[in-house]
Amino acid sequence: MADLQLSGVSKSYGTRKVLDSLDLTIKSGECFTLLGPSGSGKTVILRLIAGFETPDEGTVSIGGTVVADAKRALPPEERRIGVVFQDYAVWPHKTVFENIAYPLEIAKTSKEKISENVKKAIDQVGLKGLANRYPYQLSGGQQQRVALARALVTTPTVMLLDEPLTNLDANLREEMRFEIKELQRKTGTTIFYVTHDQEVALAISDRLAVMDESGRIRQTGTPDEVYEHPVDEFVHQFLGIPNYIPFEIRDGAAHISAGQDDATDLPITEAPPAAFRGSSGKAACRPMDIQMERGTEGAGMLPAKVLRLSLLGPIVDYLLEVGRIQLRAQMQTEEALARGMIIEEGCECGIRFTDLRWFDAKGEAVR
Amino acid sequence: MTFGKKFNTANLVLVFSILVLVIVVAVPVILIFITAFFENGKFNLAGVMKVLSDPDTYQALLNSVIIATGTTLLSTTIGTFFAWLVARTDLPFKKTMKALFLVPFMLPSFIGALAWKVLLSSRAGYINKLLMAMFGLENAPIDIMSLGGIIAIESMYLFPFVFLQVAGALERMDPTLEESARISGAGLGTITRRITLPLVMPSILAGALLVALYSLSHFGVPSILGTEKGIYNIPTKIYERIYASGGSFGAIRVGTILSMILVIAAALILKLQDVLLKKGQYQIIAGKSMRPMVLKLRGLKVPLLIISIIYICITVVLPTVTIFLVGGLKTYGLTFELKNMTWNNYLKIFQWKMTKDAIWNSIYLSLGAAFVTMLAGTMISYVIVKMKVRGKFLLQFLGVLPFSLPGTVIALGVILTWSGKFGVNLYNTPWIIFVAYIARYMAFSIKSNSASLSQVSDSLEEASRACGATHWQSLKNIVIPLIKPGMISAFFLIFLPALRELTTSVLLYGPTTRTIGVAIYALNEDGETVRAAALASIALIIIFVGETIIRKFLARLDQPRAKVQE
To answer: Hey, what domains does chain B have and what are their CATH numbers?
Structure first.
């Protein structure tokens, strides 16, 4: 088992600084996801750990040993890590068996041991019976499993996965993501997973880090923490459909306010936390955190107009107008049907916020 | 903790690549420049002007321009016409005809020239004699040993350059471009003039420029048809000066100055071609194969087919048959009757030391050069395509530079570099030809290898490193098996032209180091026409068998990896 640690790592390509003194620690045996928009430099971090890139400044260490600093770097083959690439990188001139056997052959493992371990790995990823196929005879999902098995076969202490599910279709993606999690539970390998897909990140991680476009890590934590308590607007916005409700503090209470000339009077029942300073900010919630009623009366109810209603299978999605702001709300289709909430577009209804997060004028969370 | 050593495989490959290109390409080119422009260590432009205004060299320059212009115009006309016939009409047996139009590529042009000299020289040409007897003429009606003759013969063997470019463009052109013109009410004539022609114009010009580039620095045809009558172009003039002076430095200096003209012209032509092809790509949908609009020839179908077949017979069959027949004559000048024929000439080719040596030299020099150039080209391409190093643009430049250097120029550069100037004297040894071949064909190897390397995704190699393989192991186990088809085709792209090479070898050969091309040339010069033809026949057989085997072999390589299924 091995910790992964990046400290003070900077990396530039030409004049573009991709990483600026970045610190990151991944604990031994955990499944850690690095979540960020494309171009945020998350793949660069993976490549730094793998040894395909070297840091301009700072150090990279695996299991307490420094493997790269600004001057020297251990070549990738001496780092004992498994890597799964976004484009699978399955060798077209080798069969499934030969692909998976390769790392063992390089390690000069005996013939019997190779065939035993490869068989085990093939079973593990569910490719039984395909050992003698060539990659062009496999589907994308199967090629991805070959890549996974190849990375697993030497039971590395660290596995790096670079968007391995992006090229798969939705069903396969879901299936594979559980399989990866399952494999990690069984083997106890440390997994470093890079993706821009927040669903995967929330589903498989023990901990995750959210990166922004400039290569800065905004928040690190468990999926619960990050989802429930985003540190700022960026993280909140990146983890799901966001609703933002701009407000002003008037007479000690928060009122929805779309700007200076907004004369509507829509008080928010929930009060900002005691730590909140300043006279304005944004409250935020997910579409599921907006409760809807047919009527507009009732304690804390705000009047809203339904601008658009779409039935998305298991859920109903509403676009609402409250005062001068627009919000997205969602409800289980069954519940909506039972409560008669299939409302015609243009009609009025009442809403209530059930779970608000508060951000100050700078976009930082206040708790 | 074992950190990576400073001097690893990557650095080794890099250093080797730079070394090869500097020694084989950069030094000879620089020496040509220095020799041309500097005399006794001083820049001397007046000397250059003096050489160029000398009536003798000036005439050679003029001839080169006349031959290149004539050949370009004639082969562009022929090439475009046949390309249109094959790509855009309902000519019968189109596929076969298309393959046949490419056969002239296989026939070395100097062997073609030799055959035509036998048929149409004013003194003893068989056809001339026939015509004179038939019509009771006193003088030979056609003299092939003239500027016009050189242009005609060069065009015969160079037109496929245009044919290939234009046929390709016509086939790839999006038919909807023409269809929409037709829907708008344009007739076929208007469509051809206003839509089709402008769209394929870049391809026609690109093919024409390739012909011009080739013709300008072509040695074979002018040397066989021109030298005897005192008609020289730049390459044959360079050869004549050096040969006449026994390789004196003064003659070599004149050669380098004339070479500079060739280099500059070639550079301009290639630049122009680059611009044109870029424009062409923009206009034509590349790669997609579509069903183009086809013109119905109706009554012209058969006559045009017959014209095409006659053309192929005249350019390919007639010269080949002539060469084989002349090679079997007891004495040159006799008629082609059975009683005048013998197998002896052919057998003697394998007994006589000069020709035996020539065949052997050509084979091992081309095999060796092809092998070394393939390997070096692979390494250099690897650096260019895969490695992140500063200054690799220099490698790229040096690698493709020989492509624009005519064979004569490469020979001069090699002479200047390897005649003891740097302590190594390869003159009169086969090694000097070997080095020249490497320089001449390096660009082929780099082009072929770069193309296949850029199709190997970086992650394939990185995956191997992550599996614990060293850089060298990853190259050996992953990269090389994947680019093997590209490497093999590079090998043959070098081996086949090297086997019949004349232009470079003719300046470099020594008493025992003649190649096939040189031996044919020398035998012809000495008036040993029968022996020259016999050797040429054997060369044709070797080339034809070689091409056929290789084509089959490459076709098998190109097939997908399906065969490993069983």
So the answer is: 1-28+328-566 (1.10.3720.10), 54-324 (1.10.3720.10)
Q: Is B465's Cβ below 8 Å from some Cβ in A? A: yes
Strand-pairing partners, residue B425, are B419
pLDDT of residue B477: 93
Question: Residue A354: CB partners within 8 Å, gap ≥ 6?
Answer: A285, A289, A290, A291
Closest C-alpha to B68, from B222, B256, B264: B222
Residue-by-residue DSSP string for B252-305: HHHHHHHHHHHHHHHHHHHHHHHHHHHHHHHHS--S-------B--GGGHHHHH
Summarize the confidence of residues A198-202 as an average pLDDT: 89
Q: Where are the alpha helices (DSSP H) in A132-245?
A: 140-152, 170-187, 198-204, 223-228, 233-238
3-state secondary structure of A31: strand
**Structural tokens at position B426:** 């390869």
How many other C-beta atoms lie within 10 A of the C-beta of residue B18? 19
Q: What percent of chain A has pLDDT over 90?
A: 42
* In contact, B25 and B400? CB cutoff 8 Å: no
Alpha helices by DSSP H, chain A: 42-50, 96-106, 111-124, 140-152, 170-187, 198-204, 223-228, 233-238, 333-338
Q: Could you tell me the end-to-end alpha-carbon distance of chain B, in angstroms, rounded to an integer? A: 47
- Sheet holding A357-359: strands in order across? A253-256, A243-250, A280-285, A357-359, A365-366
Q: Is the pLDDT of residue B517 over 90?
A: yes
Q: What is the mean pLDDT of residues B197-208?
A: 86
Cross-chain residue pair A92–B477, CB shorter than 8 Å: no
CA–CA separation, B162 vs B77, rounded Å?
A: 9
Angle among Cα A221, A225, A226 to the nearest 5 degrees reads 70
Angle between helices B55-88 and B301-312 (to 10 degrees): 140
CA A105 to chain centre: 35
Among A78, A157, A167, pick the best mutation site for testing chain B contact (most B Cβ within 10 A): A78
Sign of CA dihedral A71, A76, A77, A78: positive
CB count, 10 Å around CB of B245? 13
Residue contact B468–A107, C-beta within 8 A: yes
SS3 B174: coil
Tell me the pLDDT tens digit for each residue of B303-336: 999 999 999 999 999 999 999 999 888 888 788 8
Residue B281 in tokens: 């790509």
Backbone conformation region of residue A215, classed left if phi is above 0, alpha if psi is from -120 to 50, else beta: left
Query: Between β-strands A365-366 and A357-359, what pairing exists: parallel, antiparallel or unpaired?
Result: antiparallel
What residues of chain A lie within 8 A of the CB of B473, using their CB?
Answer: 77, 106
Q: What's chain A's length in residues?
A: 367
How many Å apart are CA A261 and CA A253, to the nearest integer? 19
Residues in chain B closer than 8 A to A82 (CB atoms): 466
The predicted pLDDT at position B1 comes to 38
The contacts of residue B410 (CB under 8 Å, 6+ apart) are: B28, B402, B436, B439, B440, B504
CA atoms of B398 and B305, how far apart (whole Å): 46
Residue in the structure block whose two tokens are 């088809």? B485
**Are the beta carbons of A34 and A193 closer than 8 angstroms?**
yes
- Measuring CA to CA, which residue among B347, B350, B208, B202 is closest to residue B279? B202
How far A258 CA sits from the closest chain B CA (Å)?
A: 50
pLDDT tens for B220-270 read: 999 999 988 899 999 999 999 888 887 788 888 888 998 888 888 888 888
Angle CA B29–B33–B34, to nearest 5? 115
Q: Do B468 and A87 touch (CB under 8 A)?
A: no
Residues A189 and A157 sit within 8 Å (Cβ to Cβ): yes
What is the C-alpha separation between A55 and A316, in angstroms, rounded? 48
Report d(CA A365, CA A225) in Å as an integer.
13
